[in-house]
């Protein structure tokens, strides 16, 4: 609502159209002036006395200027100045003088910033010069009353208008700042929602996609058996494929229930969950061997020493998910052959210990036409791996390369730092720690 109110077009007032309050001021001034004129309450004229009605001409001009005191500055005040001089020369009415002070006030409040400053400075200058002339010319104490009257006519309305203008400008600035703050808060909320949706999509892909890929692979294998192959070997293959499909279906449903439970209960107190770690790589590769069903083999090489310090939980979780996704991609896209998973410690400039992962899977020879993958993929796995690694300020590369011996392989290489670097900004470090806690809760 705040954003809509900030962006909604505002209807600008029509130029020269009198405001309702200005009409009321002009009418009250005209009625008051006429009443004073009827009662004969007017000062003596400075020039020779003329017709008695002549004093109503400056009053009429001042009332017309008051009609546009808000919408036609500085012209309203420029018209009122000679009208006030004429009023002093022909016999002043108090109503005309009051309307003139209101024009001074409106000129400072509603005029441009430059005109407002000019009116304020001009009022101060006229008051000072007139007061000095009175005191120097007459040397009488009664002149102080005229000095006070001059200050009341010129300085009081202009300074009052300046103060109200300043308060109005500050209020407008505060409203604009509040609208900007609300807009930034809305943008932050949308970014937080998008980040949470991305995290949920990544987690859903990691815990379910590998099971669904195994189901797709083995269901394809079962469907590929022709009706003519009805011997014991075909029945055993069908039974094995259906067993793998059932096992992955059950595991996928369990993972889905766990994820739904985490979404419904953010505290996770009702259902404790185990965070995957590198100790589960053997079981992960064992399941991959069972799902492969062909000449694909999976080999794990762990070069970590038994005395190495333990890695933080977010690092182990990210490493496990990267290997899981790489192995799933090898099941879907790799050519028959050996898939190797290498885990080794990594040192950054000899001071920061981290983890290095490398998963290689064979590709078909370039001169051989490649068949379609055994299970479809949309590329979300690579995106999820890269997001997980970047959350920990690591690096990940994935793509085809040539291994020793001239073999074409798909290589996934990830480097995960085990701790934050000291040369990063404090805000970044805090953000990464929040991401680590979030990954741990997953």
Task: Name a few traits of the molecule.
Heat Shock Protein 90; 442 residues; single chain; 2 domains; 62% helix; alpha+beta
Quick summary of this structure?
With 442 residues, the chain is α+β, with helices and mostly antiparallel strands.
Explain the overall architecture.
With 442 residues, the protein is an alpha+beta fold. The chain is 62% helix and 10% strand. It has helices at 2-7, 20-38, 56-67, 75-90, 94-110, 113-138, 143-224, 232-264, 281-292, 313-333, 380-391, 426-441; strands at residues 297-302, 338-348, 352-362, 395-402, 408-417. Strands 1-2-3-5-4 form a 5-stranded mixed β-sheet, with helices on one face. Helix 2 (20-38) packs antiparallel against helix 3, helix 3 packs antiparallel against helix 4 (75-90) and helix 10 packs antiparallel against helix 11 (380-391). The radius of gyration is 43 Å and the shape is rod-shaped.
Query: What is the count of helical runs?
Result: 12
Measured distance between first and last alpha carbons: 35 Å
Q: Kindly report the average pLDDT value.
A: 77
Encode the helix/strand succession as letters.
Answer: HHHHHHHHHEHEEHEEH
The global form is rod-shaped
